[in-house]
Amino acid sequence: VQLQASGGGLVQPGGSLRLSCVVSGNIFRINALGWYRQAPGKQRELVANITSHGSTNYADSVKGRFTISRDNARNAVYLQMDNLKPEDTTVYYCSADLNRGDIYWGQGTQVTVSS
Description:
Layout: E1 2-6, E2 9-11, E3 17-24, E4 30-38, E5 45-51, E6 56-58, E7 66-71, E8 76-81, E9 90-98, E10 102-105, E11 109-113
Parallel strand pairs: 2-11
Antiparallel strand pairs: 1-3, 3-8, 4-5, 4-9, 5-6, 7-8, 9-10, 9-11
């Protein structure tokens, strides 16, 4: 199983970015897809996730600014990030809960919010 993430970059405060992650490999069921982030010296934290039924969950710090979505036909998950703040700067990881509950991680993509 591979998770290929893309879409990070440098953006000014108040700007937007869209992260994408495509899951490939030996998949017979995707239970949930999500995005996490991890700042240096801190634990990885949930940003948002979405279940196979489309239910979503967001960290309080991103509610109203970030939107998670998925494309079941492409085994893909997206994170639309609007009104970005400097404190959103860090590495973002996509995750997939697959098959019988196995958790897989993407390689991480850097998001930098700075003027």
